[in-house]
Amino acid sequence: MHVLPKSILLTLSFVSASVFAAQTSSLCPAQSYEMALRYQQKSAEVMALQLQTYRLAQERFDQKVSQLSAPEKSAVVLDLDETVIDNSALLVRDVEKCHDYTQWDTWDSWEQHGNPKLIPGAKAFLDNADSKKVRIFYVSDRFEKNKAQTIATLKKLGLPQVSEQNILLDTEPKEQRRQKIMHDYQIIMLFGDSLPDFAAQFKPKKSADAQRQLVTESAKHFGDDWFVLPNAAYGAWSKYDTDAWKEKE
Fold first, then answer.
1. Which residues lie closer than 8 Å to 206 by C-beta, 6 or more apart?
2. Rounded CA separation 10/50 (Å)
3. Is the pLDDT of residue 25 over 70?
4. Where does the signal peptide begin and end (predicted)?
5. Tell me, what's the pLDDT at 203?
6. What is the distance between the alpha carbons of residues 211 and 215, in angstroms, rounded to a whole number?
7. In the chain, where are the structural domains located?
8. Rounded to whole angstroms, how far apart are CA atoms 147 and 212?
């Protein structure tokens, strides 16, 4: 019997695995999200970034509040999904079923019956803000029809100031919701995983270069009154083309 050399066997094994992976990916396009989800849900690095963000935010928050004569007339505004609560379990479930979660057709059921976890650092920051008498607003694009379920979810997680008035869901653009808050409160901090969580100028349909230029122009806000949480699972950025290194011949 003729035995193939080990090097050839290894090469064939690698090629077979690559072909299988390519075939699997073509049969299940949703699997292209798998590495991003693994990073978002399981990496200690994302956890460190989340803790780091809220820790630095709390230090800055305490500095700001110490200079306020009426903290109760100030507010912090936070997005919910991937900012305060972690929905990655839903996204992983969808990928395992070969379903593209960016169609957002499974989100309704998740809002009603899901059990998201807290983003590390979020509750400690919010409890501190609550203790300083600062108003907390949760501004999210979750479905308004599921508001009661969202309130129940947040209360179950032990978050402060969870009420009908303090939770503003997807009834109008976020900028309009922020403007309504500003009628009665001074917003001293904003939190989100997407740039439109901070200002209307960050339009999702703008190019990557345009968005990055806006970030440069707004640099003074980041780490002062704007705090961004990492989200590798979804976002407007996922539609952008990437740039490859072109080696000189």
1. 214
2. 41
3. no
4. 1-21
5. 80
6. 6
7. 32-232
8. 34
Contact 61, 129 (CB under 8 A): yes
Greatest alpha-carbon pair distance for the chain in Å reads 89
What distance in Å separates the CA atoms of residue 112 and residue 136, rounded to the nearest whole number? 23
| pTM for this model (two decimals) | 0.89
76 touches 134 (CB < 8 A): yes
- Beta pairing, strands 135-139 & 167-168: parallel
Contact 233/33 with Cβ under 8 angstroms? yes
Burial class of 236 by CB neighbour count within 10 A (0 to 12, 13 to 18, 19+): middle
- 210 forms beta bridges with none
pLDDT at 223 over 90: yes
Cα 190 from Cα 30, distance rounded (Å): 32
Question: What are the residues whose beta carbons fall under 8 Å from the beta carbon of 192, sequence distance 6 or more?
Answer: 78, 79, 83, 198, 228, 229
Question: The domain 32-232 is classified under which CATH number: 3.40.109.40, 1.10.3630.10, 3.40.50.740, 3.40.50.1000?
Answer: 3.40.50.1000
| Tokens coding 247 | 């080696």
The per-residue pLDDT for 3 is 52
